[in-house]
Amino acid sequence: MMIQNLKPAVISAVVVVVLTGLLMGVRLEQLGTGLTVTGAGPDVYWKIAAAAAFMFFFNLFRDHLSALWKALPGMPKTPTTLSDAAEKPLVRRLFWCFLIAAALIWPFMANRGGTDLATLVLIYIMLGLGLNIVVGLAGLLDLGYVGFYAVGAYSYALLAMYFGVGFWTGLIAAGCMAALFGFLLGFPVLRLRGDYLAIVTLGFGEIIRILLNNMTWLTNGPNGIGGIPKPTLFGLEFSRRASEGMQSFHDFVGISYDSSHRVIFLYLLALLLVLITLFVINRLLRMPIGRAWEALREDEIACRSLGINPTAIKLNAFTIGATFAGFAGCFFAARQGFISPESFTFIESAIILAIVVLGGMGSQVGVILAAIIMTVLPEMAREFNEYRMLLFGLMMVLMMIWRPQGLLPMKRPHMELRT
Amino acid sequence: MPESLFYFIQQLLNGLTVGSTYALIAIGYTMVYGIIGMINFAHGEVYMIGSYIAFTAIAALALFGIEFLPLLIIGAFIVSMIVTSAYGYSIERVAYRPLRGGNRLIPLISAIGMSIFLQNLVRLAQGSRDIAMPTLITGGVSIGPEDAFNANLSYMQMIIFAVTLITMTLLTLFITRSRMGRACRACAEDLKMTNLLGINTNGIIALTFVIGAALAAVAGVLLGMYYGVINPYIGFMAGLKAFTAAVLGGIGSIPGAVLGGLLLGVTEAMTAGYFSSEYKDVVAFSLLILVLLFRPSGILGRPEVEKV
Fold first, then answer.
1. Where does the protein principally reside (chain A) (predicted)?
2. Numbers of helices and strands, H then E, in chain B
3. Do B131 and A30 touch (CB under 8 A)?
4. Is CATH 2.20.28 the right assignment for the domain spanning A88-227+271-402?
5. Taking phi first (over 0 means left), then psi (-120 to 50 degrees means alpha), and beta for anything else, what does residue B101 get?
6. Mind listing the pLDDT tens digit for each residue in B171-183?
7. Could you tell me if A116 lies within 8 Å of chain B, comparing CB atoms?
């Protein structure tokens, strides 16, 4: 058994050496105008050797390992009573109430950094929920989601800059603009098959970024737009000194000024937006349109034969998904106070997609969990910052191999016949 | 002869140069798509790695005192093709083979992950800054009057045309004449049936990834020397462009990929020459959307019928 594995083992070890030898074992160095190479140092060589040895032995003992793996006791399954209980509406409602309560208390418990981070998590939750409609529910792979995010952010920023529009009007305008873009893009491309769609949306995201970069007369190009007004609460500002004709929050309530008020307000605002998003999507899911999305994801041909117009349904999903990205973009612009095309690169799309995929396509609790993981983990592991994107890519591959349904896959309420 | 004509010829030459390298990368997409019906998203990164290996090989050979130019370039081609072949093979083994036969989106997502992984691997190993190489091949011939504005065809451009032509001819011969090429075509027709007839389809699929990767390496070496500057992020755009070229020509069709590549290259060069070079990417993607709108199967592609 080991003899027949010897050949693949040797091959895999050689492949590892070929893969890494020249790319990592040797460094290109700029020498004046010329170019030269230096060795990367013994520690890299040792790593390469270790990787090759690992692949060699892994393949050599592959049969033993898989036998061992099978012999291992499987993961303890959640007891049926517990998983049954988790599906009861009352338990679910309690769980959501608990979650919302915890989210409400959070800014008053955590420090300023914690609240700030939580606001970021909420933005990603909003984006994840929006993309979840498109990817998770309707099954359309959208790789240019960040394009709509950018449209939302820039809509508000430009309106504020040129017309002095406030946050709340801007929010609606940004959502409408993003929806319009989603509609206009979706109209031609949604008749395409899934993987074409992925690339076209990817191209769209790039087009938006390039346009923002180059339409300097409108968007200020790579320098970005600054001084975007912060959100107000019924016309009350969160600054030390209110601008003309406005009143500031601390004067109105009669407390002394504290800069953390604004951070908390922004957090609560984001929470409100997320809750609205959650509510709307939950309602939509129970409506015929939501069911049509999922039916379409499962089998497009069957849908068509049942008289559902796939293009119209897809367009719906695409537009609604884009709208939420627009809201998120507007909030992002207001929170940062400054935006530039730098914030809207493909990697951002990939992160949002990873949140949806990691959480379990279609699952809303999954998206929330994944957004927390994806945002908090990099903050915790600052020393690994350099390796962040590397690990991120690796995780996406491994996740697809081992658990393509995600951490918490969506469950439809269903009944099983018991014999 | 009017000046504008030579300007046009110059843009055409530049476009064809870039276009032929797009065609080389596009073949990798089109072959993989033709057989397993999936987009190899990490293909652009293979091209980028090809460029890096070529620079490394040239610098290393120069370090060993080899100054003879053809030897340097041929060495770069060989080393780079070997390494990227290994990458093509590994990508297939890791990100595609375990996922074949499931939902179509899943391999696509894993390939995106692979693409991010490879890009950052190179960034960590070689740094994210630009790496420039002195021009190895200088000079060229000018077309048109000696004293006035004329079009210039550099030797580097000639080499790109020649190498592309040779590679394409070899590939066509391989696909149409050899036993393995026949197996490739059979797999593209019907994977399951080919497997039933006793052909190692897993091997053939791996072979397509390897051939695609090797062609991407050829493009990487050529474009690396043509532009003289590389960084870890060039693969993303090049992959996107080559995919556009493949779709333009009709994905799954090799002559289509070549046609699409040349068309895209010329369109870009014309946009850059007559309009603005900032918008050439926008024009390229708009072209993709337009083609998909009016002729989803591409210029030379066969219309696809969706089956239950």
1. membrane
2. 11, 4
3. yes
4. no
5. left
6. 999 998 999 999 9
7. no
